[in-house]
Write a structure and sequence with these properties.
With 162 residues, this protein is an alpha/beta fold. The protein has one domain: 3-Layer(aba) Sandwich (Rossmann fold), CATH 3.40.50.2300. It is built from 5 helices and 5 strands; from the N terminus they run βαβαβαββαα. Strands 2-1-3-4-5 form a 5-stranded parallel sheet, with helices on both faces. α1 links the parallel β1 and β2. The longest helix has 24 residues. It is globular and about 35 Å long.
């Protein structure tokens, strides 16, 4: 699983990276976490290579919402989670299909709740891709495989649109 963290505060980037690593270590999930200090740098050479992106809302240059809209022009599949202390932006997350928000100050528990949603979504995409390879709703991206033990915990099911 590849995760990007985009936040202008180094302390927050380090904290989220640590939370990602702790979450994945306890669940035996392979992970690569890449941090960016601003959205401009993140978007500059973006290739649809991240399973999930954690975006701060309030940053210099592009704010997180602007960055998410730009990202969605090239990548409809990456999972978006906003990092914010600005709760009023929550409603705008639906415009870019974000699956959630992590509100600062971030706790490991709150982060884990959101990461559970992220992992379920990633594994759901992998299940559909494997089970229904010709289905028009299948995600056409390759992902590394996470622990089968973790996937089985959720007893994943998929409904094909075909």
């Amino acid at each position: 699983m590849r995760i990007a963290v985009v936040d202008d505060e180094e302390i927050v980037r380090n904290q989220i990276e640590s939370y990602v690593e702790q979450f994945c270590r306890t669940r035996e999930l392979p992970v690569e976490c890449v941090c960016f200090e601003d959205a401009v740098t993140f978007l500059k050479n973006y290739k649809a290579s991240f399973d999930a992106v954690f975006l701060d809302i309030k940053m210099p240059g592009y704010n997180g919402m602007e960055a998410a809209k730009i990202l969605r022009q090239t990548d409809q599949n990456t999972i978006l989670v906003f990092i914010t202390n600005l709760k009023q932006y929550a409603i705008h997350g639906y415009d870019v299909d974000a699956i959630g928000f992590v509100v600062k100050p971030i706790t490991q528990y709150d982060f884990d709740v959101v990461m559970d949603k992220v992992v379920r979504r990633i594994e759901g995409k992998r299940f559909i891709q494997t089970r229904y390879p010709s289905c028009p709703c299948a995600v056409k991206r390759s992902h590394s495989h996470a622990s089968a033990k973790y996937v089985n915990r959720y007893q994943m099911q998929a409904i094909c649109c075909a």
